[in-house]
Amino acid sequence: MQMKKRETLHYLLIAGIALCVGMTLPFLTGSCLLDTEKTSAKAEVPSCVAPPPIPDQIGFAGQIIDLKRYDHRERMDRELMTFTFMHSTTMLSIKRANRYFPIIESILKEQGVPDDFKYLAVIESSLNTLAKSPAGAAGLWQFMQGTGREFGLEVNANIDERYHVEKETVAACKYLKQAYEKYGNWLCVAASYNAGQGRISSEMKKQQATQAADLWLVEETSRYMFRLLAAKAVLSQPQRYGFLLKREQLYPPIPYKELTVTAGIEDLADFAREQGISFAQLKDANPWLRGYSLQNRSGRTYVLKIPTQEGMHYDPEKTVPYNRKWVID
């Protein structure tokens, strides 16, 4: 009987040791053990991440940029990854583009500026009409106060037309055309929008370069040009980069009636109520109004947008995509 007990304990001890070895062996051997599950492409985390595709080349305003050259390719790769995995910002840009691209494209065409410059507004503000940088640049096109005034915008404590979509787009076109007269190259024009014409001209001369993409610049400006190209790539084909939107998820243009005023408005809240809308809705439609009144001592003419009731209660399912490539339905 005593012998049987010893044998039983011996077997239990061996079984326990075997169990412990079996449980710890995978941790001890790590990646040395190979099996079909570990050698497959199946991830062991809840989601998979893959880098976005990089085209061999991309066009911008009639110029072809070679993306097979190592430095161009890697700079483009960085910006494509930023746009692809900065999900909320990129998705909002696509949604807003349905509302603002029709306006921007029309003005670019009218002003004789290449259509591709609509993507400059994307990288400047993500098409947020109220965008303001820590340095004080404002609006879709991110004008500084002095530059805005230089190109015809009214900027003061009461009126700030850097937030006026149509007027600031016209002002941006004036800048872009002025820069093109100097460079004769639209990508150089885009670089100057970030760094200033003086800096780009100086660096092109010092570095004996003819293309802005070939310049050695501070990282912000160096990235800026390829961020512009990446914005075009992603917004032109969002599904290729993983953005699957339905038409109802895009932001439709809001119908407005226009009201021309040549005198000041003492109380904009009272004025809004008389138009059947709230003060907040008036400001949303006219973000260039900066206070609670419209001061107009000089008798200037202003056009106020008054959103219609129908427009403020739109049916998302009836939204018409401005670009069919933006949606999957």
**N- and C-termini, Cα separation:** 79 Å
Bulk shape? globular
Strand content: 5-15%
Question: How can the largest sheet be summarized?
Answer: 2 strands, antiparallel
Percentage of helical residues?
40-55%
Summarize the structure.
By secondary structure, the chain is mainly α.
Q: Would you give an account of this structure?
A:
The chain is mainly α. The protein folds into two domains: 57-246, Lysozyme (Orthogonal Bundle), CATH 1.10.530; 256-313, Membrane-bound Lytic Murein Transglycosylase D, Chain A (Roll). It contains 13 helices and four strands. It has a two-stranded antiparallel sheet with strand order 1-2. It has a two-stranded antiparallel ribbon with strand order 3-4. α8 crosses α9 (197-207). The termini are far apart. The model is unreliable at 1-5 and 21-38 (pLDDT under 50).
Features:
two-stranded antiparallel sheet; Membrane-bound Lytic Murein Transglycosylase D, Chain A; 13 helices; 2 domains; Lysozyme; mainly alpha; 4 strands; 329 residues; 6% strand
List the helices and strands and how they pair.
Elements: H1 2-29, H2 36-39, E1 57-60, E2 63-66, H3 70-85, H4 87-111, H5 118-125, H6 145-150, H7 165-183, H8 186-195, H9 197-207, H10 219-236, E3 256-261, H11 268-274, H12 279-285, E4 302-307, H13 309-312
Antiparallel strand pairs: 1-2, 3-4
